[in-house]
Protein backbone atom coordinates (compact mmCIF):
# COMPACT_ATOMS: atom_id res chain seq x y z
CA UNK A 1 0.00 0.00 0.00
CA UNK A 2 1.74 3.18 -1.16
CA UNK A 3 -0.27 5.53 1.05
CA UNK A 4 2.43 8.18 1.29
CA UNK A 5 2.06 8.91 -2.42
CA UNK A 6 -1.59 9.68 -1.85
CA UNK A 7 -0.70 11.91 1.05
CA UNK A 8 1.92 13.86 -0.85
CA UNK A 9 -0.58 14.72 -3.57
CA UNK A 10 -3.20 15.73 -1.05
CA UNK A 11 -1.09 17.65 1.45
CA UNK A 12 -1.98 21.11 0.15
CA UNK A 13 -5.67 20.36 0.29
CA UNK A 14 -5.35 18.91 3.77
CA UNK A 15 -3.86 22.08 5.12
CA UNK A 16 -6.98 23.98 4.10
CA UNK A 17 -9.70 21.52 4.99
CA UNK A 18 -8.08 19.14 7.42
CA UNK A 19 -11.03 17.53 9.14
CA UNK A 20 -13.01 16.94 5.97
CA UNK A 21 -10.05 15.43 4.14
CA UNK A 22 -9.22 13.13 7.00
CA UNK A 23 -12.61 11.49 6.81
CA UNK A 24 -12.89 11.57 3.04
CA UNK A 25 -9.38 10.30 2.37
CA UNK A 26 -9.64 7.49 4.91
CA UNK A 27 -12.94 6.44 3.39
CA UNK A 28 -11.39 6.35 -0.07
CA UNK A 29 -8.35 4.43 1.09
CA UNK A 30 -10.46 1.86 2.92
CA UNK A 31 -12.71 1.43 -0.10
CA UNK A 32 -9.76 1.11 -2.45
CA UNK A 33 -8.12 -1.56 -0.30
CA UNK A 34 -11.35 -3.52 0.09
CA UNK A 35 -11.95 -3.51 -3.66
CA UNK A 36 -8.42 -3.73 -4.99
CA UNK A 37 -6.55 -5.67 -2.30
CA UNK A 38 -9.03 -7.37 0.00
CA UNK A 39 -6.31 -9.81 1.09
CA UNK A 40 -4.36 -6.96 2.70
CA UNK A 41 -6.52 -7.25 5.80
CA UNK A 42 -6.26 -11.05 5.99
CA UNK A 43 -4.13 -12.37 8.87
CA UNK A 44 -3.88 -15.72 7.10
CA UNK A 45 -0.48 -14.63 5.81
CA UNK A 46 0.98 -13.27 9.04
CA UNK A 47 4.16 -11.74 7.61
CA UNK A 48 2.31 -9.82 4.89
CA UNK A 49 -0.45 -8.88 7.33
CA UNK A 50 2.06 -7.37 9.75
CA UNK A 51 3.73 -5.39 6.99
CA UNK A 52 0.39 -4.01 5.82
CA UNK A 53 -0.72 -3.24 9.35
CA UNK A 54 2.43 -1.29 10.11
CA UNK A 55 2.02 0.63 6.84
CA UNK A 56 -1.52 1.55 7.86
CA UNK A 57 -0.28 2.84 11.21
CA UNK A 58 2.34 4.92 9.42
CA UNK A 59 -0.41 6.30 7.21
CA UNK A 60 -2.62 7.21 10.15
CA UNK A 61 0.34 8.76 11.98
CA UNK A 62 1.00 10.86 8.88
CA UNK A 63 -2.59 12.03 8.88
CA UNK A 64 -2.46 12.82 12.58
CA UNK A 65 0.60 14.94 11.93
CA UNK A 66 -1.75 17.59 10.53
CA UNK A 67 -3.74 17.75 13.74
CA UNK A 68 -3.17 21.08 15.49
CA UNK A 69 -3.62 19.62 18.99
CA UNK A 70 -3.94 16.43 21.00
CA UNK A 71 -7.66 16.97 21.28
CA UNK A 72 -7.84 17.06 17.49
CA UNK A 73 -6.00 13.74 17.33
CA UNK A 74 -8.43 12.25 19.85
CA UNK A 75 -11.37 13.57 17.83
CA UNK A 76 -9.97 12.06 14.66
CA UNK A 77 -9.53 8.68 16.33
CA UNK A 78 -13.12 8.77 17.52
CA UNK A 79 -14.46 9.21 13.97
CA UNK A 80 -16.55 6.29 12.76
CA UNK A 81 -14.40 5.77 9.66
CA UNK A 82 -11.25 5.62 11.79
CA UNK A 83 -12.83 3.02 14.07
CA UNK A 84 -14.06 1.09 11.04
CA UNK A 85 -10.62 1.18 9.44
CA UNK A 86 -8.95 -0.19 12.55
CA UNK A 87 -11.56 -2.95 12.88
CA UNK A 88 -10.36 -4.36 9.56
CA UNK A 89 -7.11 -5.42 11.19
CA UNK A 90 -7.89 -8.59 13.14
CA UNK A 91 -4.81 -8.62 15.33
CA UNK A 92 -6.38 -11.28 17.57
CA UNK A 93 -6.39 -13.82 14.75
CA UNK A 94 -2.88 -12.72 13.80
CA UNK A 95 -1.65 -13.49 17.31
CA UNK A 96 -3.43 -16.85 17.32
CA UNK A 97 -1.57 -17.86 14.19
CA UNK A 98 1.74 -16.70 15.63
CA UNK A 99 0.95 -18.56 18.84
CA UNK A 100 0.42 -21.81 16.96
CA UNK A 101 3.59 -21.25 14.97
CA UNK A 102 5.83 -20.41 17.95
CA UNK A 103 4.38 -22.75 20.55
CA UNK A 104 4.14 -25.57 18.01
CA UNK A 105 7.86 -25.42 17.31
CA UNK A 106 8.67 -25.85 21.00
CA UNK A 107 6.12 -28.62 21.52
CA UNK A 108 7.60 -30.50 18.58
CA UNK A 109 11.07 -30.29 20.12
CA UNK A 110 9.90 -31.31 23.59
CA UNK A 111 8.01 -34.40 22.43
CA UNK A 112 11.19 -35.99 21.08
CA UNK A 113 11.89 -39.39 22.62
CA UNK A 114 15.45 -38.48 23.59
CA UNK A 115 17.66 -35.50 24.32
CA UNK A 116 19.08 -34.01 21.14
CA UNK A 117 22.56 -32.50 21.57
CA UNK A 118 23.31 -29.64 19.19
CA UNK A 119 25.92 -30.64 16.66
CA UNK A 120 29.01 -28.43 16.54
CA UNK A 121 27.49 -26.07 19.07
CA UNK A 122 30.73 -24.14 19.41
CA UNK A 123 30.44 -22.94 15.83
CA UNK A 124 26.87 -21.69 16.20
CA UNK A 125 26.27 -17.98 15.99
CA UNK A 126 23.99 -15.84 18.16
CA UNK A 127 23.12 -15.71 21.83
CA UNK A 128 22.11 -19.37 21.98
CA UNK A 129 25.53 -20.67 20.90
CA UNK A 130 26.36 -21.86 24.43
CA UNK A 131 23.26 -24.07 24.66
CA UNK A 132 23.89 -27.77 24.15
CA UNK A 133 20.45 -29.29 23.54
CA UNK A 134 18.05 -28.75 20.65
CA UNK A 135 15.19 -28.54 23.15
CA UNK A 136 16.89 -25.62 24.91
CA UNK A 137 17.84 -23.86 21.68
CA UNK A 138 14.25 -24.13 20.46
CA UNK A 139 12.97 -22.64 23.71
CA UNK A 140 15.21 -19.59 23.47
CA UNK A 141 14.50 -19.13 19.76
CA UNK A 142 10.76 -19.37 20.43
CA UNK A 143 10.92 -16.85 23.26
CA UNK A 144 12.91 -14.46 21.09
CA UNK A 145 10.44 -14.92 18.23
CA UNK A 146 7.74 -13.30 20.36
CA UNK A 147 9.65 -10.01 20.22
CA UNK A 148 11.18 -10.10 16.73
CA UNK A 149 10.53 -7.10 14.54
CA UNK A 150 8.81 -9.24 11.93
CA UNK A 151 6.50 -10.84 14.54
CA UNK A 152 5.88 -8.53 17.47
CA UNK A 153 2.82 -6.29 17.47
CA UNK A 154 2.50 -3.65 20.18
CA UNK A 155 -1.30 -4.00 20.60
CA UNK A 156 -0.66 -7.68 21.39
CA UNK A 157 2.25 -7.02 23.75
CA UNK A 158 0.43 -8.51 26.75
CA UNK A 159 -0.33 -11.66 24.76
CA UNK A 160 3.24 -12.02 23.53
CA UNK A 161 4.51 -11.55 27.08
CA UNK A 162 2.14 -14.23 28.31
CA UNK A 163 3.23 -16.53 25.48
CA UNK A 164 6.92 -16.09 26.29
CA UNK A 165 6.26 -16.94 29.94
CA UNK A 166 4.15 -19.94 28.90
CA UNK A 167 7.02 -21.19 26.76
CA UNK A 168 9.37 -20.97 29.73
CA UNK A 169 6.82 -22.74 31.92
CA UNK A 170 6.33 -25.44 29.28
CA UNK A 171 10.06 -26.15 29.27
CA UNK A 172 10.17 -26.27 33.07
CA UNK A 173 7.21 -28.67 33.15
CA UNK A 174 8.91 -30.83 30.53
CA UNK A 175 11.92 -31.07 32.81
CA UNK A 176 9.99 -31.69 36.03
CA UNK A 177 7.62 -34.30 34.57
CA UNK A 178 10.50 -36.14 32.90
CA UNK A 179 12.57 -36.20 36.07
CA UNK A 180 9.56 -37.35 38.09
CA UNK A 181 8.93 -40.14 35.59
CA UNK A 182 12.55 -41.26 35.83
CA UNK A 183 12.35 -41.24 39.62
CA UNK A 184 9.20 -43.35 39.61
CA UNK A 185 10.58 -45.68 36.95
CA UNK A 186 7.93 -45.20 34.29
CA UNK A 187 6.86 -42.60 31.72
CA UNK A 188 3.52 -41.94 33.44
CA UNK A 189 1.76 -42.42 30.09
CA UNK A 190 3.06 -39.02 29.01
CA UNK A 191 4.73 -39.24 25.58
CA UNK A 192 7.07 -36.41 26.51
CA UNK A 193 8.84 -38.29 29.33
CA UNK A 194 10.72 -41.00 27.46
CA UNK A 195 13.82 -38.84 27.17
CA UNK A 196 14.38 -38.89 30.93
CA UNK A 197 13.94 -42.65 31.23
CA UNK A 198 16.54 -43.39 28.56
CA UNK A 199 19.04 -40.63 29.41
CA UNK A 200 22.47 -41.57 30.77
CA UNK A 201 23.65 -39.83 33.96
CA UNK A 202 26.07 -37.56 32.10
CA UNK A 203 23.31 -36.50 29.70
CA UNK A 204 21.86 -34.48 32.56
CA UNK A 205 25.04 -32.40 32.60
CA UNK A 206 23.75 -30.83 29.38
CA UNK A 207 20.55 -29.89 31.18
CA UNK A 208 22.39 -28.33 34.12
CA UNK A 209 24.48 -26.28 31.72
CA UNK A 210 21.50 -25.19 29.64
CA UNK A 211 19.44 -24.19 32.68
CA UNK A 212 22.27 -21.91 33.81
CA UNK A 213 22.63 -20.42 30.32
CA UNK A 214 18.89 -19.89 29.89
CA UNK A 215 18.49 -18.30 33.32
CA UNK A 216 21.37 -15.91 32.59
CA UNK A 217 19.96 -14.99 29.18
CA UNK A 218 16.40 -14.52 30.39
CA UNK A 219 17.40 -12.24 33.26
CA UNK A 220 19.96 -10.39 31.12
CA UNK A 221 19.86 -9.56 27.41
CA UNK A 222 16.40 -11.00 26.86
CA UNK A 223 14.83 -8.92 29.63
CA UNK A 224 16.63 -5.78 28.42
CA UNK A 225 15.33 -6.27 24.87
CA UNK A 226 11.73 -6.74 26.02
CA UNK A 227 11.83 -3.66 28.23
CA UNK A 228 13.20 -1.60 25.33
CA UNK A 229 10.34 -2.68 23.08
CA UNK A 230 7.83 -1.76 25.78
CA UNK A 231 9.54 1.49 26.77
CA UNK A 232 6.39 3.46 25.88
CA UNK A 233 4.53 1.76 28.74
CA UNK A 234 4.30 3.22 32.21
CA UNK A 235 6.94 2.47 34.83
CA UNK A 236 4.38 0.43 36.77
CA UNK A 237 3.76 -1.82 33.77
CA UNK A 238 7.48 -2.18 33.09
CA UNK A 239 8.07 -3.20 36.69
CA UNK A 240 5.43 -5.91 36.39
CA UNK A 241 6.94 -7.13 33.12
CA UNK A 242 10.40 -7.25 34.68
CA UNK A 243 9.14 -9.06 37.74
CA UNK A 244 7.28 -11.69 35.72
CA UNK A 245 10.26 -12.46 33.47
CA UNK A 246 12.69 -12.64 36.38
CA UNK A 247 10.29 -14.94 38.21
CA UNK A 248 10.20 -17.22 35.17
CA UNK A 249 14.00 -17.39 35.19
CA UNK A 250 14.05 -18.19 38.91
CA UNK A 251 11.48 -20.93 38.42
CA UNK A 252 13.75 -22.53 35.83
CA UNK A 253 16.80 -22.25 38.09
CA UNK A 254 14.87 -23.94 40.88
CA UNK A 255 15.04 -27.13 38.81
CA UNK A 256 18.83 -27.40 39.23
CA UNK A 257 18.79 -29.28 42.56
CA UNK A 258 16.33 -31.80 41.11
CA UNK A 259 18.53 -32.40 38.07
CA UNK A 260 21.63 -32.80 40.24
CA UNK A 261 19.75 -35.22 42.48
CA UNK A 262 18.78 -37.25 39.41
CA UNK A 263 22.47 -37.69 38.56
CA UNK A 264 23.24 -38.53 42.18
CA UNK A 265 20.48 -41.16 42.29
CA UNK A 266 21.94 -42.86 39.21
CA UNK A 267 25.45 -42.81 40.71
CA UNK A 268 24.19 -44.19 44.03
CA UNK A 269 22.39 -46.98 42.22
CA UNK A 270 25.59 -47.97 40.43
CA UNK A 271 27.61 -47.76 43.65
CA UNK A 272 25.14 -50.01 45.46
CA UNK A 273 25.73 -52.68 42.82
CA UNK A 274 29.31 -52.93 44.12
CA UNK A 275 28.34 -52.46 47.75
CA UNK A 276 26.09 -55.49 47.60
CA UNK A 277 29.28 -57.55 47.48
CA UNK A 278 29.48 -56.87 51.20
CA UNK A 279 27.38 -59.99 51.65
CA UNK A 280 30.30 -62.02 50.40
CA UNK A 281 32.30 -61.02 53.46
CA UNK A 282 30.01 -63.09 55.67
CA UNK A 283 30.46 -66.17 53.49
CA UNK A 284 34.21 -65.63 53.55
CA UNK A 285 34.58 -65.67 57.33
CA UNK A 286 31.58 -67.56 58.69
CA UNK A 287 32.84 -70.89 60.06
CA UNK A 288 35.87 -71.03 57.75
CA UNK A 289 38.69 -70.60 60.29
CA UNK A 290 40.29 -67.97 58.10
CA UNK A 291 42.73 -65.61 59.83
CA UNK A 292 42.05 -61.93 60.45
CA UNK A 293 42.09 -59.95 57.16
CA UNK A 294 45.01 -57.63 56.43
CA UNK A 295 43.89 -55.85 53.27
CA UNK A 296 40.74 -54.30 51.85
CA UNK A 297 38.24 -56.14 49.64
CA UNK A 298 38.39 -55.85 45.84
CA UNK A 299 34.86 -54.37 45.62
CA UNK A 300 35.94 -51.11 47.30
CA UNK A 301 37.77 -49.80 44.25
CA UNK A 302 34.56 -49.94 42.21
CA UNK A 303 32.22 -48.12 44.59
CA UNK A 304 33.24 -44.57 43.61
CA UNK A 305 34.40 -45.37 40.08
CA UNK A 306 31.16 -44.19 38.35
CA UNK A 307 31.33 -40.88 40.25
CA UNK A 308 35.00 -40.41 39.39
CA UNK A 309 34.39 -41.28 35.74
CA UNK A 310 31.55 -38.78 35.46
CA UNK A 311 33.40 -35.91 37.15
CA UNK A 312 36.53 -36.45 35.09
CA UNK A 313 34.63 -36.94 31.83
CA UNK A 314 34.66 -34.45 28.96
CA UNK A 315 31.10 -33.25 29.56
CA UNK A 316 31.66 -32.45 33.23
CA UNK A 317 34.99 -30.78 32.51
CA UNK A 318 33.42 -28.69 29.72
CA UNK A 319 29.95 -27.83 30.97
CA UNK A 320 29.89 -28.03 34.77
CA UNK A 321 30.91 -25.01 36.80
CA UNK A 322 33.25 -25.67 39.75
CA UNK A 323 30.34 -24.95 42.09
CA UNK A 324 28.10 -27.49 40.35
CA UNK A 325 30.86 -30.11 40.37
CA UNK A 326 31.45 -29.63 44.09
CA UNK A 327 27.75 -29.85 44.87
CA UNK A 328 27.39 -32.99 42.77
CA UNK A 329 30.49 -34.54 44.36
CA UNK A 330 29.45 -33.85 47.95
CA UNK A 331 25.83 -34.95 47.43
CA UNK A 332 26.86 -38.17 45.72
CA UNK A 333 29.59 -38.96 48.27
CA UNK A 334 27.19 -38.36 51.15
CA UNK A 335 24.41 -40.53 49.76
CA UNK A 336 26.73 -43.35 48.68
CA UNK A 337 28.34 -43.37 52.11
CA UNK A 338 24.91 -43.39 53.73
CA UNK A 339 24.00 -46.55 51.79
CA UNK A 340 27.38 -48.03 52.67
CA UNK A 341 26.62 -47.48 56.35
CA UNK A 342 23.15 -49.01 56.03
CA UNK A 343 24.47 -52.16 54.37
CA UNK A 344 27.43 -52.51 56.73
CA UNK A 345 25.28 -52.02 59.82
CA UNK A 346 22.80 -54.61 58.57
CA UNK A 347 25.60 -57.06 57.83
CA UNK A 348 27.12 -56.70 61.31
CA UNK A 349 23.72 -56.92 62.99
CA UNK A 350 22.94 -60.20 61.20
CA UNK A 351 26.43 -61.52 61.97
CA UNK A 352 26.07 -60.78 65.68
CA UNK A 353 22.60 -62.31 65.87
CA UNK A 354 23.88 -65.41 64.08
CA UNK A 355 26.88 -65.65 66.37
CA UNK A 356 24.68 -65.21 69.42
CA UNK A 357 22.41 -68.01 68.24
CA UNK A 358 25.36 -70.30 67.55
CA UNK A 359 26.80 -69.53 70.99
CA UNK A 360 23.54 -70.50 72.69
CA UNK A 361 23.42 -73.73 70.71
CA UNK A 362 27.01 -74.53 71.65
CA UNK A 363 26.46 -73.71 75.31
CA UNK A 364 23.35 -75.92 75.32
CA UNK A 365 25.34 -78.79 73.84
CA UNK A 366 28.05 -78.31 76.47
CA UNK A 367 25.51 -78.45 79.27
CA UNK A 368 24.00 -81.62 77.90
CA UNK A 369 27.47 -83.14 77.67
CA UNK A 370 28.15 -82.20 81.28
CA UNK A 371 30.87 -79.66 80.42
CA UNK A 372 31.04 -76.27 82.04
CA UNK A 373 29.17 -73.62 80.12
CA UNK A 374 31.24 -70.85 81.65
CA UNK A 375 34.35 -71.72 79.69
CA UNK A 376 35.21 -68.75 77.50
CA UNK A 377 36.42 -69.04 73.93
CA UNK A 378 39.30 -66.65 73.54
CA UNK A 379 39.59 -67.19 69.80
CA UNK A 380 38.75 -64.28 67.49
CA UNK A 381 35.10 -64.55 66.52
CA UNK A 382 33.73 -64.58 62.99
CA UNK A 383 32.01 -61.28 63.70
CA UNK A 384 35.34 -59.76 64.75
CA UNK A 385 36.84 -60.86 61.45
CA UNK A 386 33.89 -59.42 59.50
CA UNK A 387 34.19 -56.10 61.34
CA UNK A 388 37.95 -56.00 60.72
CA UNK A 389 37.39 -56.61 57.02
CA UNK A 390 34.83 -53.84 56.90
CA UNK A 391 37.19 -51.58 58.82
CA UNK A 392 39.94 -52.15 56.27
CA UNK A 393 37.40 -51.55 53.49
CA UNK A 394 36.12 -48.24 54.80
CA UNK A 395 39.65 -46.99 55.29
CA UNK A 396 40.37 -47.62 51.64
CA UNK A 397 37.02 -46.07 50.80
CA UNK A 398 37.99 -43.00 52.81
CA UNK A 399 41.23 -42.73 50.83
CA UNK A 400 39.21 -42.91 47.61
CA UNK A 401 37.00 -40.08 48.83
CA UNK A 402 40.08 -38.01 49.66
CA UNK A 403 41.41 -38.60 46.13
CA UNK A 404 38.20 -37.02 44.81
CA UNK A 405 38.57 -34.03 47.14
CA UNK A 406 36.20 -35.08 49.92
CA UNK A 407 37.33 -35.36 53.52
CA UNK A 408 35.61 -38.48 54.78
CA UNK A 409 35.54 -37.29 58.37
CA UNK A 410 33.45 -34.29 57.32
CA UNK A 411 30.62 -36.53 56.08
CA UNK A 412 28.18 -37.53 58.87
CA UNK A 413 27.38 -40.95 57.31
CA UNK A 414 31.08 -41.77 57.19
CA UNK A 415 31.49 -40.95 60.88
CA UNK A 416 28.56 -43.27 61.59
CA UNK A 417 30.11 -45.94 59.39
CA UNK A 418 33.41 -45.60 61.26
CA UNK A 419 31.69 -45.94 64.62
CA UNK A 420 29.90 -49.01 63.34
CA UNK A 421 32.96 -51.07 62.31
CA UNK A 422 36.06 -49.57 63.94
CA UNK A 423 37.70 -51.43 66.85
CA UNK A 424 37.05 -49.94 70.27
CA UNK A 425 40.56 -48.46 70.49
CA UNK A 426 40.09 -46.66 67.13
CA UNK A 427 36.64 -45.21 67.67
CA UNK A 428 37.67 -41.73 68.78
CA UNK A 429 39.87 -40.73 65.83
CA UNK A 430 39.17 -41.16 62.13
CA UNK A 431 42.57 -41.74 60.58
CA UNK A 432 43.74 -43.90 57.70
From TrEMBL:
Gene Ontology CC: one annotated term: membrane
Biological-process GO terms, alphabetical: Golgi organization; protein transport
Pfam families, sorted: COG2_C (PF12022)
UniProt domain COG complex component COG2 C-terminal: residue ranges: 87-394
Lineage top rank: taxon: Eukaryota
Protein name as it appears in the record: COG complex component COG2 C-terminal domain-containing protein
Species: Citrus sinensis (Sweet orange)
Amino acid sequence: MNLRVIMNKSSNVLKKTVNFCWIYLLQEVLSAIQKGKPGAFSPGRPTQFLRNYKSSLDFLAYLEGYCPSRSAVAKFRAEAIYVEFMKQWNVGVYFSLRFQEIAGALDSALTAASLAPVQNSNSNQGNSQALTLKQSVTLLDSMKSCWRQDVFLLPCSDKFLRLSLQLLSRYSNWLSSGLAARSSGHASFNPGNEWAISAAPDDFIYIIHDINCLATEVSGDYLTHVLQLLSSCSSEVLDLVKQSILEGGKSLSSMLPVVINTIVDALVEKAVEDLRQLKGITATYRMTNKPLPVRHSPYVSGVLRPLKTLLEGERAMTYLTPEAKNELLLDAATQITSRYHELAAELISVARKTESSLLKIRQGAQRRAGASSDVSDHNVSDTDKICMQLFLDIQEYGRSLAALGVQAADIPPYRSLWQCVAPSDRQSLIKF
